[in-house]
Design brief:
single chain; 531 residues; alpha/beta; Aspartate Aminotransferase, domain 1; Aspartate Aminotransferase, domain 2; 4-stranded antiparallel beta sheet; 14 helices
Length: 531
């Protein structure tokens, strides 16, 4: 067991005698102590504040006592875990890779890579259908991962977790189900009519579907298709100049329209705004609408609690949560999923089949036809377990005054509490990097920051006067820096800001302050080339 030290345990805050701790520890210019082995003896004279994890103690000046480390960003978290992500050692264009395109997809830790290798070499078989050893082994891993996901989002029932290809399929599953329900189709078989007492709304001509002006196309186009099929109308919820939901305008839309569905992004993939989703959903429910949350960007960076949010449906894009591509999750309240007609037909999603009628299996099988992405599900389970495991190394302890007898600041028991602590620390770390990048970029003449909401995730979008974002991305790529340039599948949002595209840097738990600095240096080079 090792102890990870927070930003407030900078080397300058520790006695010089402690700076030469063994095990290859280093103290860079920023000043931090990344690892302290529990085998190392660190003095703790009486009356000195200390940080304690198990048997380890580290000295601090008394001026820094009574702080909760879990509330502070662990500086250089990225440096301490980079070895968990092999691809980060790649040389790009002859330079060390600086990967800042995490909103598009994340890199994968060894834990996930090894879990996939173990599945392919020791458990590869189809799930739910076989009675042989490998099929049982594969099914056990598959369903264990479902429970891990349930824990991850705090769903009340494992059967409320549906595996999909990603957020896009999850949203289409819901929108298509609502269309079929509105057309009067049964949720239980290929015959019969929709239950007149169904908790799902029937979408009629003139009904309104609300989406925000910052939505990814995946949370816009499916609703337009539903509107086309039912005669409903899709209306945008306006956003302010800084990129926040205009709550007054939203309330007015709810009052003035027959709103049946509200679909909202939790964290904007383009400008990083963290929306007040709980409030938005409560307002929608009060108006009688059902809700769907696009959680593609929230999953990797924010603690998701679907019960606390009271989300009717919530989607995850799991290749952004350090899992393989081609795997996603749709959470839905059980009674709503049971009322939703089937999305696709095929094997595994049936109870009985004849040429006259097919009846559907219970959830989740009803929405998982055919052979699923078993390896992807196994990898997703491993990715979540990796995040949970970080709580054993991150500074989830309290700094207390010696002699107060408080002992180790317990972050709580159970994997949910561990995950809460982990996700909080990850968010704070990513915010630290994004704020550093934002500050440095704002000092460069001609750079325009797009989206400056008060509550943001680790995403920085910007433009440079006279330089197309694609040129920014290409020049940065020559420096080994990977960002995304374009409209980010948010063309209405670009229209809102009267721009064709932005350059976007998005941070993850393995990124570092040095990489934020490298981004700013690269942008300065872009500016010089076009001056």
């Amino acid at each position: 067991m090792s102890l990870r030290i927070s930003e407030h345990t900078a080397c300058r805050a520790i006695e010089p005698s402690l700076r030469n701790i063994p095990k290859g520890l280093r103290c860079p210019a920023q000043g931090f102590l990344p690892w302290v082995s529990t085998a190392t003896t660190i003095p703790n004279p009486e009356g000195v504040a200390y940080l304690r994890s198990n048997s380890s103690q580290v000295r601090f000046p008394t001026s820094q006592t009574n702080m909760t480390v879990a509330q502070q960003p662990p500086i250089e978290l990225g440096q301490t875990i980079r070895n968990d992500f092999p691809i980060l050692s790649v040389i790009a264009r002859g330079k060390p890779l600086v990967y800042l395109d995490n909103a598009a997809t994340s890199q994968k830790p060894l834990a996930v890579i090894e879990a996939l290798d173990e599945y392919w070499t020791e458990a590869n078989a189809n799930v739910h259908r076989g009675v042989h050893f490998l099929s049982e082994r594969a099914t056990e891993r598959f369903e264990t991962a479902r429970e891990t996901v349930r824990r991850f989002v705090n769903a009340g029932d494992t059967n409320e977790i549906i595996f999909t290809k990603g957020c896009t399929e999850g949203i289409n599953l819901v929108s298509t189900g609502l269309q079929r329900h509105s057309a009067g189709l049964s949720a239980r078989s290929t015959k019969g009519n929709a239950d007149p007492n169904s908790p799902l709304p029937k979408i009629n001509p003139g009904d309104v579907i609300l989406v925000s002006a910052m939505e990814h196309h995946s949370n816009l186009v499916p609703w337009q298709m539903l509107a086309q099929q039912t005669g409903a109308i899709v209306k945008p919820i306006p956003i302010t100049e800084v990129g926040e939901i205009d709550l007054e305008a939203y309330a007015q839309l709810l009052r003035d329209n027959r709103v049946k569905v509200v679909a909202i992004v939790h964290i904007s993939n383009s400008i990083g705004t963290i929306n007040p989703v709980k409030q938005i959903l409560a307002m929608a429910h009060k108006a009688g609408a059902i809700t769907l949350v696009d959680g593609a960007q929230a999953g990797p960076h924010w603690l998701v609690d679907v019960q606390d949010l009271d989300a009717d449906f919530y989607t995850l894009s799991c290749h952004k949560i350090y899992a393989p591509t081609g795997i996603g999750v749709l959470y839905g309240k059980r009674h709503l999923l049971e009322a939703l007609p089937a999305y696709q037909g095929g094997g595994s999603m049936v109870r009985t089949v004849s040429f006259q009628e097919t009846s559907y299996a219970e959830i989740p099988a009803k929405f998982e036809p055919g052979t699923p992405n078993i390896a992807g599900v196994v990898g997703l389970g491993a990715a979540i377990e990796y995040l949970e495991s970080l709580s054993e190394a991150l500074p989830f302890v309290r700094m207390v005054r010696a002699g107060e007898g408080e002992g180790v600041g317990d972050a709580g028991s159970g994997s949910r509490q561990k995950l809460q602590n982990t996700m909080h620390a990850i968010h704070q770390h990513e915010l630290l990097l994004a704020n550093r990048a934002t500050q440095l970029l704002s000092e460069i003449p001609g750079v325009n920051l797009i989206g400056t909401a008060a509550e943001k995730a680790g995403i920085v979008s910007f433009t440079i006067n006279g330089v197309h974002p694609h040129d920014i991305g290409s020049i940065l790529d020559g420096e080994g820096i990977a960002i995304r340039a374009g409209h980010h599948c948010c063309m209405p949002l670009m229209t809102r800001y009267s721009i064709p595209a932005t350059a976007r840097a998005s941070f993850a738990l393995y990124n570092t302050l040095e990489e934020a600095d490298a981004l700013a240096a690269g942008v300065r080079k872009v500016k010089e080339m076009f001056t």
